[in-house]
Design goal:
Elements lengths: L1 H4 L7 H40 L35 H5 L14 H20 L3 H23 L4 H14 L8 H26 L6 H14 L4 H21 L12 H26 L1
Helix pairs in contact: 2-4, 2-5, 4-5, 5-6, 5-10, 6-7, 6-8, 7-8, 8-10, 9-10
Length: about 290
């Protein structure tokens, strides 16, 4: 059985099924990451400002990804182990807090289901060896960054920089691309959006994107190599434009409200990992 789990070739059902189950658990943890990291960042800022003003820290209680236990934000009912089973618990309790009956966002089981399905697909696509495991970790970071950016328009350095260095380490052995291509990809990815940012700012006086976007594209370049950057930029721009225009036309978003670019970069990076070479090859055949 262990042999089936470790280094199984792509398209093997047993490790894929195990990956789906693991993905459910990881998805549950990602919900915690998505909710708590922005709060942790804000608490650090609050304490920093207080220290600069020679005041006592605003937050003295311990707050991390582990502590305190998850609880209902309305009635502070602590979530028990039986209430924390991915997807199943949400369905059993009817999507409401068992303490005060406040509705629980359906996004929690959606994140869990999305993580489970895509983790299974990664193992199915790449196998359960180093490549498949690395692809799954890449996916998990992108899911967390996507939802954090959608909520707060922030791409935390704790995630983007870890993803960047992880890509360089993974490609020490040429897992997805050569180390040479990964290093160039990281540098070019960062400098590309950095240049666009400053050109746009000088031309309009406004900031078109955040520094987190630079770091995320650098991370994608570190994982997939410099040759995938044009495809990632093209795909993210197209998807971002279509979604943004659709939201504006349907009046679900104000024209003046900034649109987070991170989710589109993350989606483009995932597409590039899975089908980038095929898309590029088909394009080259079409134009030659």
């Amino acid at each position: 059985m262990l042999e089936l789990l470790y280094s199984a070739p792509p398209g093997t059902w047993f490790p894929t099924a195990v990956a789906v189950l693991i993905g459910l658990l990881v998805g549950s943890f990602l919900n915690v990451v998505i909710h708590r990291i922005p709060t942790m960042m804000q608490r650090e800022i609050d304490n920093f400002v207080a220290a600069e003003n020679n005041q006592e820290p605003v937050h003295t209680d311990r707050y991390s990804l582990v502590v305190p236990r998850s609880a209902c934000p309305v009635c502070q009912h602590q979530i028990s182990a039986l209430e924390n089973i991915p997807i199943v618990s949400y369905l059993i309790i009817g999507g409401k807090c068992t303490g005060c009956k406040t509705p629980i966002s359906p996004r929690y089981p959606i994140v869990e289901a999305l993580t489970a399905c895509l983790t299974g697909y990664m193992i199915w696509r790449f196998g359960s060896g180093v490549t498949g495991l690395a692809a799954a970790v890449f996916l998990w970071f992108l899911i967390a960054l996507t939802f954090i950016d959608a909520d707060t328009q922030l791409l935390p350095d704790d995630l983007t920089l870890t993803l960047l260095w992880g890509g360089l380490l993974v490609n020490l052995f040429g897992t997805f691309t050569s180390l040479h291509s990964a290093v160039i990809g990281a540098a070019v990815g960062y400098l590309t959006l950095w240049s666009i940012y400053w050109l746009f700012k000088h031309a309009t006086g406004k900031e078109g994107m955040g520094y987190g976007d630079f770091k995320l594209l650098a991370a994608l370049g570190a994982w997939l190599g410099w040759s995938m950057l044009p495809l990632i930029i093209l795909l993210s721009s197209l998807v971002g434009a279509v979604v943004g225009i659709s939201l504006i036309l349907t009046k679900k978003m104000n024209r003046e409200k900034p649109i987070p670019f991170g989710p589109y970069l993350a989606a483009a990076g995932l597409i590039a990992m899975l089908w980038g070479q095929s898309i590029t090859a088909q394009y080259l055949r079409a134009v030659t």
